[in-house]
Amino acid sequence: MVQEIVVAGELSCSQVAEKFDLSQPTISHHLKLLTDAEILAIRTEGKHHFLSVNRALVANLASWLVARLLPARGAKRQMAGARRPRTEFASE
């Protein structure tokens, strides 16, 4: 859903529903989760609700994930030369 909204820039709730072979309650449930998480922003115009992606939040999340999941090249080299921790227990 997020990808479809990003590509369009902004979609109404009914336009989102047209793009998926899911029931309206299922679509509403997922859109609520995404708006509660602030991944999607809602703009109301009369009776219509338009959804867009909170690009700043998604960009910050992507940066955070990259920084934590992809180690820096220097850190990777350091880890390659480091001793492996002992896994056996010392007997007393």
What does this structure look like?
It is built from 5 helices and 3 strands. The chain is elongated. The chain starts with a helix and ends in an 11-residue tail after the last helix. It has a domain at 2-56: Arc Repressor Mutant, subunit A. The model is unreliable at 86-92 (pLDDT under 50). It has 92 residues and is an alpha+beta fold. The chain has a 3-stranded antiparallel β-sheet with strand order 1-3-2. Strand 2 (40-45) and strand 3 (48-53) form a beta hairpin.
Strand and helix map with partners:
Elements: H1 2-8, E1 11-12, H2 13-18, H3 24-36, E2 40-45, E3 48-53, H4 55-69, H5 73-81
Antiparallel strand pairs: 1-3, 2-3
How do you describe this structure in short?
It is built from 5 helices and 3 strands. Helix content is 54%, strand content 15%.
Which terms would index this structure?
Arc Repressor Mutant, subunit A, 5 helices, 3 strands, 54% helix
